[in-house]
Amino acid sequence: MTVIPTLKTERLLLRAPTFDDWPDFWDLMKSERSVYMGGPFSAVHAWGDFCQGIAQWQMFGFGSLSIEVISTNQCVGRVEINYGPRCPEPELGWQVFDSAEGKGYAFEAATEMRRWAFEEREMQTLVSYIDPRNQRSQGLAERLGAALDETAEKQDPDDLVYRHS
Fold first, then answer.
1. Residues ≥6 apart with Cβ < 8 Å to 84
2. Phi first, then psi: what are they for 44, rounded to 5°?
3. Fewer CB in 10 Å around end: N or C, the chain?
4. Which residues pair with 147 in a beta bridge?
5. Distance set, CA 146 to CA 78, 127, 162 (Å)
6. By C-alpha distance, which of 91, 21, 19 is closest to 56?
């Protein structure tokens, strides 16, 4: 069994998802905020996505981590490396719940997850698949130092693909 790591930043604990994280994740996935991820989703689809992020640890040695604010013990989203049939290459992804938007949590969590992938897993590259209407995620990818890769295979035909290297 693969051990899911716990990563720590100045403000955040990136930890294995638990069932307690599900209600807020479900709220996000059924909301209009999920439109950039292909939503809103049914409970069955969202549950599958939630569990996939956990199962990928066993299959690939990477997956989803819940983002918890250390000072409050509150889960505010998730950061992940996705792969498999829906992702042509390993993808660095992030979602933060509505209450956590604009506080730098996604940037902090994605920076640490990317560091872990490159240093601990010795991955050479990651991509982020981003809906062209999602300007906030595009800005975050650029703040992370990712560059638009026009030649990369896309998850969805309209996606922008940002490469982290």
1. 52, 56, 59, 60
2. -65, -45
3. N
4. 163
5. 19, 8, 6
6. 91
